[in-house]
């Protein structure tokens, strides 16, 4: 009888130890998920800063370039991709800091990666060139208004290619941010500029619409490449998707500079730059650097969230540019610009709140599954 009682006590003790071990394991798992959760939001915040600061500052420098004597569309296209060498050291830094993937995913072949890099490089060069033609032949207000349509194109491509789920908050975000950009464009005073021939206006209109659609397609295809082909979870993946396509796009621009004859007038353009030769070179260099920072933020948001989210943040930057223009170019800040900025922030917060709800739901499902298991 005593032996039976002792055996029961031993079994109870062993069960208690097992339960305590399971609880300790669950606490460690929850702690790990919590750290991963905060790390994810930190990366999202960092990518948003990169995108908004890079895009806004690069746009202002582009305006500075044109306002003080620059007029080469191929050079304007060139600087959007030519800054990629500054990212090459980061490739070596992050090369060995790769996450261990327990699912043993099959890596894409070098041939597949080469095709992807060349394809996206050519697409990027063509898109940048179409934007340059649009800005050359259209008033800034009309150009900005058409560019805002890229968000609508992105919705379509996200639905067809990325299986994007549209909730009320996401639709609200897309509509509000688009209205914000459109309000800013309609309010622009640049439509009072000199009239252009109808033929050039049509070319500018078609190029800008095509560029907006191509840019939206570019973002959606990047998301497909990340999730279905590359299947990697490392930061060096983002760097490679920026460096190698940018190299291809830069090569295309160099060919364009020589083929168009623009390269022969660059020296005269630099000599005639109103702020001086040093200012001319620094404007181009910093424009190239800032576009790379912008693209890292853009690719990071596609990698971590979706192409639609990255486009929402990119469109959010349109109303932010006038605010910086007030600070650096002493532009007039009026009610319409303030309203456009507030609408953009509203749309941005709607999308972020939707991501917060999705994240909370995923965490709740994980916790429920852990509770059921025990």
TrEMBL record:
Localization per Swiss-Prot or TrEMBL: Membrane
Gene source species: Capsicum annuum (Capsicum pepper)
UniProt-recorded name of the protein: Probable purine permease
Membrane-spanning parts: 40-62, 74-94, 114-134, 140-161, 168-186, 198-222, 243-260, 280-301, 308-329, 335-353
Topology in the lipid bilayer: Multi-pass membrane protein
Single GO cellular component term: membrane
Alphabetical list of PANTHER family matching this protein: OS09G0467300 PROTEIN-RELATED, PURINE PERMEASE-RELATED
Key words of the record: Membrane, Transmembrane, Transmembrane helix, Transport
GO terms assigned for molecular function: purine nucleobase transmembrane transporter activity; purine nucleoside transmembrane transporter activity; transmembrane transporter activity
Protein family (similarity comment): Belongs to the purine permeases (TC 2.A.7.14) family.
Major location category of this protein: membrane
Alphabetized Pfam families for the sequence: PUNUT (PF16913)
SUPFAM superfamilies noted in UniProt: Multidrug resistance efflux transporter EmrE
